[in-house]
Design goal:
single chain; about 325 residues; mainly beta; 4-stranded antiparallel beta sheet; about 55% strand; globular; disordered N terminus
């Protein structure tokens, strides 16, 4: 058979820059689950006489242009000043607002299906459950709500977040059974079907920036300060934590965001030193630093592989967005 090996990756090529000298702020972006289409929230991108400070929800589908797959502009779903967070399934697009609302559109018909008002505050996290049956939204990094997509009912979820604590990251397991949340420097693992707390684990760091399960649900990847940490999971419990080995003699940089390739072999990260960094998931070590867009003056806040693993999207609220081609030569096994 033919497989991709992370250690064989020798190049990541930047193929598209959007925005030029003065790019529009990119608030959030993600890939459609099954199609090579990028769903975007950005600010005032349409034309110079557009309404100032209006955020646009739209998509760009990758089409072949001159032999290369390039993102071509698609439909505008809506424009609203309060758009803030984004989540996508194969047929639904959900947007959270700065006024505590969640709005849902049909990807196929581009129609607004309904909207739900949760509470006053900013929607800070918006994640579909892997089953596609419900949606989790957090407000001001403190309160959380489960939204049933069939009945439109809303249930508040108690994550035991103290008055002076905040929720800094969360992640569902790929099979949807587990949810891990980071409350300051405490990891909490919950069963998502009954919200039973399975385990708490205090982490000896100052901050946790990001959480993601590996595709096979055997490990949890955590960005903590300037480190990449991999937790092994045994019978729904945190077991052993291992720090990934960084390239020696590098300046410590606060990790910003990450994503694991769909085949689980490669981890890409961004940091406050404006670097992309590539890590071999099998070896547990950094393998190279792609030289991409080093002129930008802002760390990339958005980083996500395409569903087929061939492309990587990155973006920020200042520097617009970039699309990268991920070169992974096949290795015979």
């Amino acid at each position: 058979c033919v497989a991709h090996s992370a250690s064989s990756i020798s190049n990541i090529q930047q193929i598209r820059t959007y925005g030029g000298v003065d790019p529009p702020p990119l608030l959030d972006a993600t890939w459609h689950e099954t199609e090579l289409a990028i769903i975007m929230l950005d600010n005032n991108f349409l034309e110079a006489n557009d309404i100032p400070d209006t955020n646009s929800l739209h998509y760009r589908k990758l089409d072949v242009v001159d032999g290369h797959e390039m993102p071509k502009f698609g439909a505008v779903f809506a424009k609203d000043k309060s758009f803030n967070q984004l989540a996508v399934t194969s047929n639904l697009i959900a947007v959270g607002t700065t006024h505590g609302r969640v709005m849902l559109w049909s990807f196929k018909s581009e129609a607004l299906l309904y909207e739900i008002s949760l509470t006053n505050g900013v929607v800070t996290e918006l994640v579909f459950h892997p089953s596609g049956e419900w949606l989790l939204a957090t407000i001001d990094n403190s309160s959380a709500y489960q939204i049933d997509l069939e009945s439109h009912s809303v249930r508040e979820i108690k994550f035991d977040i103290g008055e002076n604590q905040h929720l800094s990251a969360l992640a569902f397991s790929e099979d949807g059974r587990l949810l891990v949340v980071a409350v300051d420097t405490i990891l909490k693992m919950w069963e998502s079907d009954n919200w039973h707390l399975l385990q708490e684990q205090r982490v000896p760091v100052k901050s946790i920036q990001y959480l993601q399960f590996t595709p096979d649900d055997t490990h949890l990847i955590m960005l903590a300060e300037d480190k990449v940490v991999r937790w092994s999971l045994t019978e729904n419990e945190f077991a052993i934590a291992t720090d990934f080995e960084a390239i020696p003699n590098k300046q410590p940089c606060l990790m910003r965001n990450a994503d694991i390739s769909p085949d689980g072999s490669l981890l890409m990260t961004t940091d406050d030193c404006h670097q992309y960094r590539a890590w071999d998931m099998n070896l547990g070590k950094e393998i190279f630093v792609p030289q991409l867009d080093s002129s930008r003056d802002r760390p990339w806040e958005i980083l996500e592989f395409s569903p087929d693993g061939r492309f990587m999207l990155s973006g920020s609220s200042i520097s617009g967005w970039l699309l990268h081609f991920v070169y992974q030569p096949p290795v015979d096994k």
